[in-house]
Design a protein that fits this description.
flat, alpha+beta
Length: 489
């Protein structure tokens, strides 16, 4: 790959312009421009790069190429591509609840067991599965059997883009309450910065969303060495009654139904799990999340927090009067929920005001709230009615006071550079990545504590905070005041 200096030199030659003329028109010192173009001084000033690209009248694709090389040379190739993976991960969040196309779910029982009664245990003691289709059919049949017989499943397997694991979220098991314990290997984030783990998280979140009792655990290792194609059957899925061994390429497998073999694999799974850590926790429903927050929210967890939000992110500024007025009384358990929300908002405020909170916001959603009193980022069922002007103003005044006091900082993120979607909110502190999901009448929260993801996500959100296309600090506050003056008189 060409360096930034080499690229600039080529573009300058093509435009038939002298370095002296370019430096003068860009208002950059001539010797500095000479050093930039000949590679004796790294170009780390983004404004200088923008000026040069504008003067050279580069095309959009040429500008994007130079901007990418600029970032790579600024932060390093490895970190650049890890952040690109994180960007892709966040951009894809709004679609992760969508189930795969219907045709993917046309899975029939495997030929070896299609005539067996899945409600009983009449299965062959062992059989060899010779191709991916047959393996998929077999796995589906076994999952269905476990669903019917209400037996929990243990899985040791790496998630892949074309994985058998997607059968866990087959519509047939949409309301299944069986527990699925899943062990996977993560590359050691201290030694392997390739970004493979990000792909892994990306695939796992779908199971968090669409399975009621999905519990993943992890250990560190080298996935290529442990689960490479040289290992014939590194994966397995087991219950008390059967074991399915699976090849690394997911094209072949062996089914065992002997009780002794099943017991041996159950023991192996239990032994491995003792050296694993929970990857995360998921909660369905606002009530359960609030109960968990009672023990989680504390000043230590809020010392340095970065949040990526679609709307105003105002939970910590609500009080009993607002909750009593606007919480929908038709919500299941609304009376109990009101008490929990009051305590939650109070605890959140007390914890956050002792720390340093930075919020990346979607400006159009904030403006829509100011105009209408509707929080587009939350399910409509949460609210009895839109907020009146006086209460919108009250919340915004509390936001501005927090900004003035110094513990709360806001930043408007350019939607054209990073489109924020109403379904998701991200919060990262020193220990946890919190992903909140709102869609229709559904509310779900994921807490992921794996250090590698926490470190990477925190660094990525910090880069957004200081990056191009953001309105932060005093300018964001001024814009908020302008909108209040315009719409909330």
């Amino acid at each position: 790959m060409e360096t930034l200096a080499e690229k600039l030199e080529r573009y300058i030659e093509n435009k038939n312009i002298t370095l002296a003329a370019l430096a003068k028109s860009c208002r950059i010192d001539r010797s500095t421009m000479f050093q930039y173009v000949h590679g004796t001084r790294p170009l780390k000033n983004r404004e200088h790069l923008e000026q040069i690209m504008h003067r050279l009248a580069l095309t959009l694709s040429e500008r994007e190429e130079l901007a990418e090389i600029f970032e790579i040379e600024k932060i390093g190739y490895e970190l650049f591509y890890r952040r690109k993976k994180l960007e892709s991960f966040i951009r894809s969040l709004p679609t992760l609840n969508e189930k795969p196309e219907e045709h993917k779910w046309k899975v029939q029982a495997a030929p070896n067991i299609q005539n067996l009664d899945l409600y009983n245990s009449a299965m062959p003691s062992s059989c060899y599965i010779s191709n991916h289709l047959e393996l998929s059919q077999m796995f589906f049949s076994l999952l269905y059997r476990s669903h019917v017989q209400k037996e929990d499943i243990n899985i040791l397997m790496q998630p892949k883009k074309t994985s058998l694991l997607d059968l866990l979220i087959h519509p047939s098991f949409e309301h299944s309450d069986i527990k699925i314990s899943h062990i996977l290997c993560l590359d050691d984030f201290k030694n392997d910065r390739s970004g493979n783990n990000i792909d892994c998280y990306h695939m796992l979140i779908r199971y968090f969303l669409l399975r009621n009792r999905y519990e993943p655990f992890y250990f560190y290792g080298n996935t290529k060495e442990r689960y490479g194609t040289s290992n014939p059957f590194p994966y397995f899925v087991c219950t008390e009654h059967w074991v399915l061994q699976i090849a690394a390429d997911e094209n072949t497998g062996i089914l065992h139904t002997d009780s002794g073999i099943s017991k041996a694999f159950q023991h192996l799974f239990s032994k491995i799990s003792r050296y694993c850590q929970p990857l995360g926790t998921a909660f369905n429903g606002l009530n359960r999340e609030l109960c968990w927050y009672e023990t989680y929210v504390n000043p230590e967890s809020c010392q340095n927090t970065i949040e990526l939000c679609t709307g105003l992110c105002s939970s910590q500024f609500w009080d009993k009067q607002l909750i009593d007025t606007y919480l929908n009384p038709q919500l299941p358990g609304a009376d109990q929920l009101k008490g929990q929300l009051v305590q939650y908002c109070k605890s959140l405020y007390e914890s956050k005001r002792t720390g340093n909170i930075r919020i990346l916001l979607n400006p159009s959603y904030v403006l829509d709230f100011i105009k209408t009193g509707i929080f587009k980022e939350y399910p409509k069922i949460f609210f009895a009615k839109p907020l009146e002007k006086k209460d919108r103003k009250l919340i915004l005044e509390r936001v501005l006071k927090a900004c003035k006091d110094g513990w709360y900082q806001i930043c408007f993120l350019d939607e054209t550079l990073f489109p924020l979607q109403y379904r998701w909110e991200l919060c990262v502190d020193s220990d946890t990545v919190t992903i909140q999901y709102f869609h229709l009448e559904m509310f779900r929260t994921l807490f992921i504590n794996e250090p590698g993801l926490v470190e990477d996500m925190y660094g990525y959100l910090e880069s957004l905070w200081t990056g191009q296309g953001t309105v932060s600090g005093e300018n964001a506050v001024k814009l908020l005041k302008t909108w209040m003056e315009q719409y909330l008189k």
